[in-house]
Amino acid sequence: MIIDGRTRPAGVVGWPIDHTLSPAMHNAAYAEMGLNWAYLPFAVPDQGALMRFADMARGVPFVGFNVTMPYKQAILELCDEVAMLAQMAGAVNTVHCTEGRLIGYNTDSRGLLESLAEEAEFIPEGKRVVLLGAGGAAGAAVASFILGKAAHLTIVNRDVERAEALKDRAARYLRGMEVVTTSPDDGAEAAIRAADLVVNATPLGMKPDDGSPIPVEWLHPGLTVYDMVYCAHPTALQAGASAAGARALGGLGMLVAQGALAIDIWTENTQVHAPRATMRAAVEQALVREEALGGDD
Questions:
Q1: Residue 2 falls inside a structural domain
Q2: Are residues 137 and 32 located together in one domain of the fold?
Q3: What's the pLDDT tens digit per position in 119-168?
Q4: Helices 22-33/276-292 angle, 10° precision
Q5: Which of 89, 130, 191, 278 is deepest in the core (most CB within 10 A)?
Q6: What pLDDT, in 10s, does the model give residues 14-64?
Q7: Are residues 169 and 157 located together in one domain of the fold?
Q8: Would you say 165 and 171 are in contact if contact means Cβ atoms under 8 Å apart?
Q9: Are residues 37 and 138 in the same domain?
C-alpha cells in the first residue's frame, strides 16, 4: 500500500476494536481494485467520541466507515439519511460519506442472506427461523428474513421486552411473516425443534471458553445453524450443531459479504464489485495470525 496526498481514508469504529479483522480484508480488496484508499480501525470509547467522529467524517475526504459493537444503533441517529433496510433493521453498520453528509446503510442483512445462500444453499423463503438475541445484529437478521420471505420467526432473548421492542419496530415491514417472542426458558425449545434455521446474534462464542447460547440437545438433523460469531475455532454452538447432525456455519462469510457490499456502495459503480474471494483469503489469514497471538474476536 502506498499512501500519498490523494489517499482517501475509510475505516471501522467500535469499542473495543483491537482485534478487528476488517482492515485486512478491505485493504486487500482496495489493492486488487486499484483504489487509492486506506482502511483503519478507529477506537471510539463512548457516545461523545462517536458524535465527534461523525462530525470529523463530514469534514474530511472520508470514503465511508463501518460501525461495529456497540454503536450500530447509536450511529443511526447521527446520520443525515438512512436507507430503508437500515430503518427496518434499526441499525446502521455502513456509512457513506458524500458531499459532507452521512448516509447510513445496513449491509449485514444482505450479507447474511448471501452467506446462507452461498455456503449452505439455504433460502429462507417459506421457512421457520429462530433468532437468538435482540440487539443490533439481531435487528439486521430480522430485516434479512423479511427480505428473504421467511414464513415464521421466533425471537429468543432473556429480556423478552427487548425482543418485543424489536418485533414492534419491524411490524410495519413484515409482509406477512409471523413473528413471536419468547425466552430461553419458555418456548424456545419447541421453536428450535420445529425450525429450519437457527441464527445466533448474541456475542456468546466470541471467547474460546464461552458456552452455547442454547442447550445443544435441542438441535437436530436437517437444521441449519448459523453463528454470526467468527473465530478460528468452532464455537460451542457450532460444535453442538455438527454433533447433532445439523449444518453448522460460522459468521466469516457474513463478515466478508457485508464488507464487500459496503465497498460496492462506496465506489458508486454498479459495474464493479468487491473481490469476495480475495477478501475471504485475507481475513482467514488475519484470523490465524490473531489466534496465534492469543487474541479473540
A1: no
A2: no
A3: 999 999 999 999 999 988 999 999 999 999 999 999 999 999 999 999 99
A4: 140
A5: 89
A6: 999 998 999 999 999 999 999 999 999 999 999 999 999 999 999 999 999
A7: yes
A8: no
A9: no
C-alpha cell at 228: 454470526
Give the relative orientation of helices 276-292 and 252-267 as an angle to the nearest 10 degrees: 130
d(C-alpha 165, C-alpha 173), whole Å: 14
**Counted domains in the chain:** 2
Do β-strands 94-98 and 101-105 pair in parallel, antiparallel, or remain unpaired? antiparallel
pTM of the full structure: 0.94
In a domain, 55, yes or no: yes
The residues assigned a catalytic role are 72
Show the domain range for 262. 8-106+253-292
Tell me, yes or no, whether 212 and 129 share the same domain: yes
